[in-house]
Specification:
The complex is a heterodimer of chains A (about 110) and B (about 140). With about 110 residues, chain A is an alpha/beta fold. Chain A is about 40% helix and about 35% strand. In chain A, helix 1 packs parallel to helix 2. The radius of gyration of chain A is 12 Å and the shape is globular. Chain B has about 140 residues and is α+β, with helices and mostly antiparallel strands. Helix content of chain B is about 30%, strand content about 30%. A 5-stranded antiparallel beta sheet of chain B has the order 1-2-3-5-4, with helices on one face. Classes of the chains: A alpha/beta (about 110), B alpha+beta (about 140). Chains A and B meet through strand 3, helix 2 and helix 3 of A and helix 1, helix 2 and helix 3 of B.
Chain lengths: ~110, ~140
């Protein structure tokens, strides 16, 4: 998996590409947790290049969202491919994460 | 595909990538929809991670045998391991409706496999766990 990052209007945009799974989750965890700990509260994950997510990846998102909840922050998930959206639906994650069709829509939701 | 593809994995999480790569190769070769291949990769990730992370109570190396084949129009994987007996089909259903504060991740992997696969079967034979999962390719 590769992660690239940029900041737009104080929103940290992390673009994920490849697979977020048992072997790659520490990359995202190692990126996002220190950012949250340093005070960042607005995150958008651009998943347009993400191929799949397993429960190990979902765990990272949940832990980050829990941390952010106590700081009034949030993570918006943008551009999910249909088969990953289905995984979110089955896992019950579509109701706990804001999901947008485009990155711009996500940025404007903060 | 006339034959079975057999992979022999060590009990090391990085070995799961071999299975994903094989599914991806088959996807390209037989023009199988990406969604089917990604769901199979996810199932392999969840099942083999469980075996490697929770199945062994010694520090020895173990071999996990994966056979991949078509059964009619179902692309199937058979996972055979010598870990402790574990039948994922007996895992209780997880509550996926809870709010973020109460949400737990335990059991979610099996929940995903159960919902995404068309075939999900378990047998314990000769002190081995034999798990089958598969998905229709159309």
């Amino acid at each position: 998996m590769e992660i690239s990052e940029k900041k737009v209007n104080e929103v940290n945009i992390l673009m994920l590409s490849g697979k977020l799974d048992t072997n790659t989750w520490p990359q995202l965890d190692g990126k996002i947790v220190p950012m949250i700990d340093s005070g960042e509260t607005k995150f958008l994950l651009d998943c347009s290049q993400l191929d799949y997510i397993s429960s190990a990846g979902l765990r990272v998102l949940l832990m980050a969202a829990k941390k952010l909840k106590s700081k009034n922050g949030k993570i918006v998930i943008a551009c999910l491919k249909d088969h990953i959206k289905e995984v979110f639906d089955i896992a019950g994650f579509s109701t706990i994460f804001p999901i947008t069709k485009t990155v711009d829509e996500g940025i404007n939701s903060f | 595909m006339d034959n079975t593809i057999e992979l022999r994995l060590n009990n090391d999480l990085i070995e799961i990538d071999k299975v994903s790569k094989e599914f991806e190769n088959l996807g390209e070769k037989y023009n199988i929809p990406l969604k089917v291949i990604m769901d199979l990769c996810l199932a392999a990730d969840e099942i083999i991670t469980n075996i490697i992370s929770h199945g062994y109570n010694d520090d020895k190396s173990h071999i996990i045998i994966v056979n991949i084949y078509f059964e009619d129009d179902i692309l199937t994987a058979k996972i055979e391991d010598d870990a402790q007996p574990f039948n994922p089909l007996e895992m209780p259903e997880v509550d996926v409706t809870s709010a973020i504060e109460d949400k737990k991740i335990g059991g979610l992997g099996i929940h995903l496999v159960r919902n995404l696969m068309d075939k999900f079967e378990y047998n314990r034979i000769n002190n081995k766990n034999i798990l089958l999962f598969g998905k229709k390719i159309k």
